[in-house]
């Protein structure tokens, strides 16, 4: 494939005729340049892909957010796109929903995997089976998993999986996606079920790196299970906990497919609209690519703010 | 220590093997095994059998555990009406291409950054890693605009598999994983190969790659599942019914298709990834839990 164009490989690949290797005496400027060219030749394919599909779109997105294209003519419009986007009432609804989703997802999708990992780490049996189970939903195409939730679990009638369970337990049933109050929790439950496997495996790896002597020492000092978790497990996994919190926030704030499939986009009374869904709507339904780009830049700034806070906090602790 | 015990964890082995601890351990294990089976396997069972039920049976209360009169017709309808064979082939084709492009170009780049170290290599690596900070949703619009009119070349990649393959190469995480692994391969091996007159390409092919099988396996799995699971990007760049991926196809048909048929199609779409996972689960688990991310 593309690698065949690498220069320098044209030199014969076999052994040199001379028994003496081409040693340092040839480390001349020419050799250095050639080594460098080879290095860059290996890099070029990936660099071109980054340039076209990452670095350039990044700049283009910012530029587009200050422009407006009408009938093929592009003009600079300053902050117009931003003004228009912010004036749209769904802008604030979408941000409100996005923060609500992110907070719920932190409580569920962040804390639950940690305790699941602690639990799994204690077991001596069925370890492999339990790990496969937890990771299995991660392997499903999200559309498949979400249709399962939409049609079976969140059926608002009595035949739905969740309502059947609630009924069997003599608890009140719910309208799920048709009730504005339940839309978010329902989306977070589906999202957590789909995604928690990855976090559990990463936590398990971190837990396995904790030296056993620390637990022994804590036990000798009379620390119970909860205090051992608080004073040994959590401090020892602090870095990975902080990193995953960060990744979780960035990932959940971009939630898109959950509203699209579970709630047909907006949900009852706009209870499901997310910022990511709004980007999609502006860009590809309202034919407002510039507005969508502006919304993207706002999202980037907000997420960069989170990253800055994270870097600040994590550098302070060390 | 007993031979069956690994390293010491939260609770000591001795405590778990005696009296009350033993009872609690086995009770908890049983509860967790049953509970997890219900939570993670239960919905999948519900999905596979639900797609076999008739429209009437699916709406009945209480729901039936086994389909009374299995309607394999739902699966046949899904296969035929949604043209699933074509959709699955498309998805497989995109995933395989993305895998090849990533293995060739990302491995070459990671090798250059780790072993050849050309000038500005670190700057390039920094610029690559910086893209990890940029949320995918932020780039979706400018990326789409770029793909429909590629700068300089003025190509339209819409409905072309390259619109999935080339952006997949711009994956800083995989390059980072590969580079970290290559960094751990001793320099002496490189020096010895150079002594023998091996070219950089030959060194990569006959020394580095054979030693890197575990990480190549992990990167391959990431590459394939990323394409298989992606939704919005293929939805945008593969708009024609003939070029759709399976997830997008099911979504497009879900509006006017009976629920059971949509679920049957979802089951069929999930089968390939689940099979791949069950075959390679050992590699995936060890790849994810060792080395790559340490706290």
Please tell me about this protein's structure.
The complex is a heterodimer of chains A (318) and B (295). By secondary structure, chain A is mainly alpha-helical. Chain A folds into two domains: 39-77, no CATH class; 89-315, MetI-like fold (Orthogonal Bundle). Chain A is built from 13 helices and two strands, in the order H-E-E-H-H-H-H-H-H-H-H-H-H-H-H. Chain A has helices at 29-64, 80-87, 89-122, 127-135, 142-153, 161-168, 180-208, 212-220, 225-236, 238-252, 257-262, 275-284, 289-317; strands at residues 67-70, 73-76. In chain A, strand 1 and strand 2 (73-76) form a beta hairpin. In chain A, helix 3 (89-122) packs antiparallel against helix 10 (238-252), helix 8 (212-220) runs antiparallel to helix 9 (225-236) and helix 12 runs antiparallel to helix 13 (289-317). The longest helix of chain A has 36 residues, at 29-64. The radius of gyration of chain A is 27 Å and the shape is globular. Chain A starts with 28 loop residues before the first helix and ends with a helix. Residues 1-20 of chain A have low confidence and may be disordered. Chain B is mainly alpha-helical and 295 residues long. Chain B has two domains: 13-70, no CATH class; 76-291, Orthogonal Bundle (MetI-like fold). Chain B contains 15 helices and no strands. In chain B, helix 2 packs across helix 15 (259-289), helix 5 packs across helix 12 and helix 9 packs antiparallel against helix 12 (213-229). Chain B is flat and about 75 Å long. Chain B starts with 12 loop residues before the first helix and ends in a 6-residue tail after the last helix. Chains A and B meet through helix 1, helix 3, helix 4, helix 5 and helix 6 of A and helix 2, helix 5, helix 6, helix 7 and helix 8 of B.
Question: Which CATH C-level class of the largest domain in chain B is it?
Answer: Mainly Alpha
The secondary-structure class of chain B comes to mainly alpha
Largest β sheet strand count, sense and barrel closure of chain B: none
- Name the pair of protein chains with the most residues at their interface, and give those residue counts: A-B, 126 and 115 residues
Order of helices and strands of chain B: HHHHHHHHHHHHHHH
Helix content of chain B: over 70%
Report the span from N to C terminus of chain B.
27 Å
| Order of secondary-structure elements of chain A | HEEHHHHHHHHHHHH
What's the CATH topology name of the largest domain in chain A?
Answer: MetI-like fold
| CATH C-level name of the largest domain in chain A | Mainly Alpha
Number of separate helices of chain A: 13
Beta-strand portion of chain B reads: under 5%
CATH architecture assignment name of the largest domain in chain B: Orthogonal Bundle
Transmembrane segments (chain B): 23-46, 92-113, 120-142, 162-182, 203-228, 261-280
Membrane topology (chain B): Multi-pass membrane protein
Pfam families (chain B): BPD_transp_1 (PF00528)
Subcellular location (chain B): Cell membrane
């Amino acid at each position: 494939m593309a690698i065949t164009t690498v220069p320098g490989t044209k030199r014969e690949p076999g052994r040199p005729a001379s028994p003496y290797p081409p040693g340092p005496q040839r480390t001349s400027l020419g050799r250095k340049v050639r080594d460098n060219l080879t290095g860059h030749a290996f890099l070029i394919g990936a660099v071109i892909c980054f340039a076209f599909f990452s670095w350039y779109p990044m700049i283009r997105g910012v530029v587009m957010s200050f422009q407006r294209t009408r009938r093929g003519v592009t003009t600079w419009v300053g902050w117009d796109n931003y003004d228009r986007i912010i004036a749209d009432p769904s802008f604030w609804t979408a941000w409100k929903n996005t923060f609500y989703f992110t907070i719920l997802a932190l409580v569920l999708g962040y804390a639950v995997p940690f305790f699941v990992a602690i639990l799994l780490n204690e077991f001596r049996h069925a370890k492999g089976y339990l790990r496969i189970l937890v990771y299995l939903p991660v392997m499903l195409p999200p559309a498949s998993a979400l249709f399962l939730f939409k049609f079976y679990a969140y059926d608002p009638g009595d035949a739905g999986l969740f309502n059947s369970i609630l009924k069997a337990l003599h608890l009140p049933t719910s309208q799920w996606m048709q009730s504005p109050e339940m839309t978010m929790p329902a989306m977070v439950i589906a999202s957590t079920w789909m995604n928690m496997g990855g976090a559990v495996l990463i936590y398990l790896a971190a837990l396995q790196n904790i030296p056993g002597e620390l637990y022994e020492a804590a036990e000798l000092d009379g620390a119970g299970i909860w205090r051992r978790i608080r004073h040994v497990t959590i401090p020892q996994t602090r870095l990975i906990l902080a990193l995953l919190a960060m990744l979780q926030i960035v990932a959940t704030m971009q939630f898109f497919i959950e509203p699209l499939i579970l709630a047909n986009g907006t949900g009852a009374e706009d209870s499901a609209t997310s910022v990511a869904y709004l980007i999609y709507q502006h860009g590809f339904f309202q034919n407002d690519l510039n507005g969508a780009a502006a919304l993207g830049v706002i999202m980037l700034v907000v997420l960069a703010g989170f990253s800055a806070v994270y870097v600040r906090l994590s550098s302070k602790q060390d | 220590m007993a031979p069956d015990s690994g390293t010491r964890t939260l609770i000591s082995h001795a405590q778990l093997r005696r009296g009350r601890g033993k009872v609690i351990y086995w009770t908890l294990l049983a509860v967790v095994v049953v509970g997890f089976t219900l939570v993670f396997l239960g919905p999948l069972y519900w999905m596979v059998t639900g797609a076999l039920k008739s429209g009437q049976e699916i709406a009945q209360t209480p729901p039936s555990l086994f389909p009374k009169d299995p309607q394999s017709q739902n699966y046949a309808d899904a296969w035929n009406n949604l043209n699933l064979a074509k959709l699955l082939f498309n998805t497989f084709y995109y995933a395989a291409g993305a895998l090849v492009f990533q293995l060739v170009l990302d491995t070459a780049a990671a090798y250059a950054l780790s072993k050849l170290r050309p000038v500005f290599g670190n700057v390039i690596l920094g610029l690559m890693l910086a893209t990890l900070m940029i949320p995918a949703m932020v780039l979706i619009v400018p990326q789409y605009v770029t793909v429909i009119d590629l700068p300089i070349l003025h190509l339209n990649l819409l409905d072309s598999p390259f619109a999935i393959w080339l952006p997949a190469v711009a994956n800083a995480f995989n390059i980072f994983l590969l580079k970290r692994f290559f960094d751990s391969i001793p320099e002496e091996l490189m020096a010895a190969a150079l002594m023998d007159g091996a070219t950089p390409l030959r060194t990569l092919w006959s020394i580095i790659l054979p030693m890197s099988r575990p990480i190549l396996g992990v990167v391959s799995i990431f590459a394939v599942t990323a394409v298989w699971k992606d939704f919005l990007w293929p939805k945008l760049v593969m708009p024609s019914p003939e070029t759709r991926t399976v997830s997008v196809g099911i979504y497009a048909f879900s509006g006017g298709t009976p629920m059971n048929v949509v679920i049957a199609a979802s089951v069929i779409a999930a089968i390939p990834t689940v099979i791949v996972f069950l075959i390679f689960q050992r590699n995936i688990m060890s790849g994810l839990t060792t080395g790559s991310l340490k706290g």
